[in-house]
Specification:
Largest sheet: 8 strands, mixed
Number of domains: 1
CATH class: Alpha Beta
Shape: globular
CATH architecture: Alpha-Beta Horseshoe
Order of helices and strands: HEHHEHEEEHEHEEHH
Radius of gyration: 22 Å
Distance between the termini: 87 Å
Number of helices: 8
Helix content: 25-40%
Number of strands: 8
């Protein structure tokens, strides 16, 4: 085992040791590629088995992983996914999965590695500084539609496709899948061959999604986005117009 692998193994051992405390319910962990997984493509050894079951009792996981640009991330993603998957009691997941290069957004979808996993108690999901696809988000939401109540998407990147859609399609489908009480959207980007574009009107999507979820809870039809947006802007324009009457005609 070379020095890099020894360092990786040592750091994993320390993480496992900390996670083993039975009273620990919240884990915040920031790491890079050599801190997490040995640089080998061999099968997992007995030493790695404790890594895959280290956080079975953790309820809140804040995991920030930075990987090197240009490297094959498949082994790293597999290790991270197995690590997260062992959290059987997970209620809150904050995940940041990003490259170390500021000039590149990364292109590995970590959610793809979690596509077979269901966390029965998952209530809050926060994803940031990561690349994903519409299909991966759909799959995650459908698997946890009965439990998720809060979603945060910040500085996220997506490559739109004809088959699965783009950010706008995901956001408009979202209230039909999960019953949210809280949502936060910030800097959602779409990546194209020679450029990237930031999604607009995110500040409008947030209240519309919450309004849709409230309508579902009240047994009402969800408002159509275009109609809701028009009414919302008209209401705001009236409220900001100092010449608008404050009492109905004939009531003064």
């Amino acid at each position: 085992m070379d020095s890099t692998n020894r360092t990786a193994l040592y750091l994993r051992e320390q993480i496992v040791a900390v996670c083993r405390f039975p009273g620990l319910k919240r884990l915040q962990l920031a790491c890079n590629d050599i801190s997490i997984v040995p640089l080998t493509h061999n099968a997992y050894t007995a030493d790695d088995e404790r890594w895959t079951t280290a956080i079975t009792h953790i309820k809140q996981l804040d995991l920030r992983v930075m990987y090197s640009s240009g490297q094959d991330t498949s082994q790293l993603a597999k290790s991270i996914a197995i690590f997260i998957s062992s959290a059987n009691e997970l209620e809150v997941l904050h995940l940041r999965w990003t490259q170390d290069s500021e000039d590149e957004e990364g292109c590995h979808d970590i959610l793809k590695n979690l596509e077979q996993r269901i966390f029965p108690s998952l209530q809050e999901v926060s994803l940031s500084k990561s690349f994903t696809t519409a299909q991966s988000l759909y799959d995650l939401l459908h698997r946890h539609k009965s439990s998720i109540r809060s979603i945060s998407l910040r500085d996220m990147y997506m490559r739109p496709s004809i088959g699965s859609g783009d950010w706008n399609s995901v956001l408009r489908e979202l209230p039909g899948i999960v019953d949210l009480e809280k949502i936060s959207l910030w800097n959602l980007w779409e990546i194209y061959r020679d450029s990237k574009t930031r999604v607009t009107e995110l500040e409008m999507y947030e209240p519309w999604i919450l309004a849709c979820c409230q309508s579902k809870r009240d047994g009402l039809s969800m408002p159509v986005y275009s109609e809701w947006l028009q009414n919302h802007r008209a209401t705001n324009d009236t409220a900001s117009d100092p010449t608008a009457p404050t009492t109905p005609p004939g009531k003064d």
